Amino acid sequence: MTIFKKKLFNISLILTIILKVNTEEISPSVIIVGAGVSGIAAASKLFQNGFKNIKILEAENKIGGRIYTTQFKNYVVDLGAQWVHGEEGNIALEIVQPLGLVEKSNLTSRQHRFFNSSGNKIADQAIIDDFNDFYYQIDEKLAEYAKDQANVSKGEYFTKEFNNYFKAHSDLKENEKGLLHLMNMVTIIGDAGDSWWDISTTSASEYHDNVGDHLINWKERGYGTMLDILMKRFPNPEEELPVLNNTILNAEVTSINYSDPIGKVKVKTANGDLYLADHVIYTCSLGVLKDEHKSLFQPHLSEEKQKTIKALGFGVVGKIYLYFDEPWWSEDSSKISWANFIWNDKDFEMLENDPKKKWLLGLVGFDLVEHKPKLLEGWLAGNYTREMEKLSDEEILNHCIEVLQRFLGKTYNITTPSGMIRTKWNSNNHFKGSYSFRSMKSDAENIWASSLSEPIDEINPKILFAGEATNPHLFGTVQGAIETGWREAERILAMHSNIAKN
Fold first, then answer.
1. Three-state SS for 38?
2. By C-alpha distance, which of 168, 205, 162 is closest to 182?
3. Mean pLDDT of 52-71
4. Angle at 308 between CA 146 and CA 302, to 5 degrees
5. Distance CA 95, CA 150 (A)
6. In what order do the strands lie in the sheet with 279-282?
7. What are 155-192's pLDDT values in tens digits?
8. Residue 159 exposure: Cα atoms within 13 Å on the Cβ side
9. Cα–Cα distance between 203 and 187 in angstroms, integer?
10. Span 486-502, mean pLDDT?
11. Secondary structure in 3-state letters for 428-481
């Protein structure tokens, strides 16, 4: 190399280093609190658009938040988000469908079977099919009904409709109480309230349902794949964004101080570390916000923001997976989605007074799991879920065996499961529940999720909020959470449009 070329090379190298340093210096610092799907989505979008100085602080020892894909026996299961809900206008589906990772459910075309606590199948199947069809029909009419009503709960709406139905269907009279309780539980599994009396009918008109199959499954995979896609770890690992390298696990945030109007936000963690940032995107659950917002933010959030946090609903849903070495339901697996449980009045009252087994009243039954033929999946909701979480794994497993024998032992040769795994979302202090819903208190106080989504200062948004509870129309969903992560990333990008150009 000639002296002239060598000098040019050195100058070019120096300029490259200077340009890189200057770019990194002017790149605003962003701290994202929470490595759930909204936090991962926000970080990924910022990295893709030239931001360098990003840190995600995650309280858990894993990423994903309420997406929790884990190994259970020889299957991958989801203890958190499980299905892609809806097909039209669904960002989550748009992300994964081109990769061939999901498929529409075939469970929706199968029969629901109802068994009572005496172990007998309820009524003729045609009667049960008609009952289920009626529930879906009135559920579809709920949004239209909500437009003309104020401060009406789903409980008021559904019980009125069902009482009229029972009057015209005397063959279900003896199971009326049990059926109403089951429909209550089915409803709050979708909405995460403690009862359908807690949930406003306004949620039906505010929630923008994605049309199409709501049980689109991940085949042999789990929802955790969505995180890898957002971070570009999948399908081409060589394109991976530096999200994981900038995520700090076991870093529970205990203080967010934004008191300096011209300085940086100070973020402290439980282990004593201090971080400074130009912008903080807070993505943790509404459950955590409800309990910790006063001690977490300095100064306190505005009265309007605090009022919103208090009034919006946040509840818990539970899941239990049972693994059987040899499925004893195989002959029916292509015909039914599986069994729902109806408690007889006497058995219902007995369980209500049993502090250990009361949780079983929240168990709607067990379903088959697509692509996982040795599993049964039980769902429960509301305060029954909290009661379940207080018990040991051994107690839960024994109760599940007992309830299967009680309801299905006359029809099937029940065997003992060789494994059990269940959720504990409420008792985990980093979540304190599952997802948000529009409560009756929200209606009474004219509170909306859009208020939670607003940054503290729109002109200079140092503190921003993301997560499913901040989505006005897709609360409680993964697609809603992704949208909010992107929304807040784009808010920051709009303030620093020079970064992407660099």
1. helix
2. 162
3. 98
4. 150
5. 37
6. 247-248, 54-57, 30-33, 279-282, 463-465
7. 999 999 999 999 999 999 899 999 999 999 999 999 99
8. 13
9. 12
10. 87
11. CCCCCCCEEECEHHHHHCCCCHHHHHCCCCCCCCCEEECCHHHCCCCCCCHHHH
CB atoms within 10 A of CB 441: 14
Structure tokens at 24: 């990194």
Adjacent-strand bridge partners of 322: 376, 420
Task: Kindly report the backbone phi and psi dihedral angles of residue 454, in degrees, each rounded to the nearest multiple of 5, phi listed first.
Answer: -75, 135
| Predicted model pTM | 0.93
Contact 414, 404 (CB under 8 A): yes
> Can you tell me which residue has the tokens 């009474």?
444
Structure tokens at 342: 């109806």
Single out the residue of 395, 384, 383 nearest to residue 359, CA to CA: 384
Handedness of CA 105, 108, 111, 114 (dihedral sign): positive
Residue in the structure block whose two tokens are 């292509």: 334
Q: Provide the residue type at 271 as one letter.
A: N
Neighbouring residues of 72: CB distance < 8 A, sequence distance ≥ 6: 321, 323, 375, 419, 421
Of 189, 153, 449, nearest to 316 by C-alpha is 189
Is the confidence at residue 494, as pLDDT, over 60?
A: yes
Long-range contacts of 252-256, Cβ-Cβ distance < 8 Å, separation of 24 or more: 252/57, 252/59, 252/430, 253/33, 253/57, 253/59, 253/284, 253/296, 254/295, 254/296, 255/295, 255/296, 255/298, 256/33, 256/280, 256/282, 256/296, 256/297, 256/298, 256/463
Residue of 167, 30, 20, 1 lying closest to 466 (CA atoms): 30
Gap between the Cα atoms of 42 and 45, Å rounded: 5
The amino acid sitting at 103 is: E
Amino acid at 206: E
Return d(Cα 32, Cα 49) in angstroms, integer.
16
φ/ψ of residue 71, rounded to 5: -85, 130
Mean pLDDT of 199-207: 91
